[in-house]
Amino acid sequence: MDFSSFSKKPYVITVACTKGGSAKSTNAANIGAFCADHGLKTLLIDTDTQPTLSSYYALTEEAPGGIYEFLSHRDVDPSHIISKTAISNLDLIQSNDPSNNVSPMLRNAPDGAIRFSHLLKSINHYDVIIVDTRGTRDITVDMSVLAADVLFCPILPHILSAKEFIRGTIGMYQDLQTFESFGFKLPPLKAIANCVDNTNDVKFVLNQLNVLFETNFDESKTFLNFSIPAHVAYREAATYALPVYRHNRNEYPVIKELCCLLFPQFKTLFEQSPGEKR
Ligand SMILES: Nc1ncnc2c1ncn2[C@@H]1O[C@H](COP(=O)(O)OP(=O)(O)OP(=O)(O)O)[C@@H](O)[C@H]1O
Ligand SMILES: [Mg+2]
């Protein structure tokens, strides 16, 4: 695979939480568009067998292939797997594995969990790569975490979701620490509460999560002091295939703050309005 026209290494962010429906794909779509709108060449990669992120934005050029060919054919041409979305600077490797052939293929391969990291190294003409994952533990989630520079975990502030996050997502992160003996550095984990409302129950769960992160986890795991509100605008924006901040300008400061926390190296760029992008 030859992506060699640029020499810089893209910044890879993986969005993962082993609890389904925690707004992973919604966040991937919004932060991807925000980066692209600020002039960053951005690639979305959908590794979930349910192609929610793949179907979020309209496509202006649809590649015949997608994640299946990326992971299974080593010499695939980029134009065969990278689609263009209707948002400038925002491309997509679609999920095209509805029968879940990729996971058993990777489980049976000697390089299964690390192949994705190696393949991503050949993609160097993007500033940012955003990887969306499925809402349950799987080798495709493991590989996406191992390939990331930062792991972004959206959590729903409900007690059962929080318990599943600790059991599933933190458990996965701890299991993957085995790879550190083989030279892999796990990405820092940044968790953010999503769909937050003003109920006492949500306040209680947020407080419990804060205490847990402060007392039980080391500095590799942070529960960010920022949350994304529960607003119908997020669902409406998906209906209209728009980034939420284009659908409703009230959400612009939310996504901007989120992107500044996740990509501090681009903070100055994000402080400019999209019209002033570099
Ligand atoms: N901030 C928000 N406020 C209200 N609704 C939201 C918000 N963010 C996402 N949603 C809605 O929550 C639902 C689940 O979101 P999404 O599909 O992004 O979750 P997911 O974690 O990707 O799910 P899965 O685990 O199935 O992949 C969607 O209907 C989405 O529109
Ligand atoms: Mg999803």
Descriptive report:
Strands 3-4-5-2-6-1-7-8-9 form a nine-stranded mixed sheet, sandwiched between helices. The protein has a domain at 11-188: P-loop containing nucleotide triphosphate hydrolases (Rossmann fold, 3-Layer(aba) Sandwich). It has twelve helices and nine strands. The protein is α/β, with parallel strands linked by helices. The two termini are 29 Å apart. It has helices spanning 24-37, 67-72, 78-81, 102-107, 115-120, 139-146, 159-176, 200-216, 232-239, 244-247, 252-262, 267-271, and strands spanning 11-15, 42-46, 59-61, 82-85, 90-93, 128-132, 150-155, 189-196, 221-229. Helix 1 (24-37) crosses helix 11. Residues 24-25, 48, 52, 132 line the site of magnesium ion. The site of magnesium ion has 5 residues, from helix 1. This is Chromosome partitioning protein ParA. It comes from Rodentibacter mrazii. Residues 12-161 form the AAA domain. It holds the Pfam family AAA_31.
Strand content: 15-25%
Please write the CATH class name of one domain: Alpha Beta
How are the strands of the biggest sheet laid out side by side?
3-4-5-2-6-1-7-8-9
The CATH superfamily of one domain appears as P-loop containing nucleotide triphosphate hydrolases
How widely separated are the two ends?
Answer: 29 Å
Low-confidence stretches: 1-6
Share of helical residues: 25-40%
CATH topology of one domain: Rossmann fold
Discrete helix count: 12
Helix-strand string: EHEEHHEEHHEHEHEHEHHHH
Biggest pleated-sheet summary = 9 strands, mixed
Number of strands: 9
